[in-house]
Specification:
This protein is mostly helical. The protein is built from 7 helices and no strands. Helix 4 packs antiparallel against helix 5.
Amino acid sequence: MTASASLRRDYGVSIARRRDGALASRFHEYKATNLFDGTLSGFWNFALEPMVDHLAAWDAKDIDKANKIWDGGLVQLHEYVADMGRLHIRYKTAAWLRGLIPSPYMRSPMPKPRQVEIDTLYGLLKNLGLN
């Protein structure tokens, strides 16, 4: 089963694939222009629930619900994590905070997460109702 089929079955959200590996930072633009397939995002690793809810509301053309989810903390999480210099460290730290992986540390020479990053991510995830 493909990831697309699994998400469609489990969450009722259609996620197809792009061949060029579109950046997730533009997923709204890609969704609006039918180019969402293949959009890649580390956010699926630690913020699956609000991401799927947001996209399901979008697919249902429920703009009020989609905006409520996005403006209810998801955009703040996206903006914080998307610092390209710390992106993968923050991805891994967020996944660790959710209990999805045993350690937030990456292999050397990658830096360790800063305490302020851990605290900020914890607050942003908590604000979204993610533990």
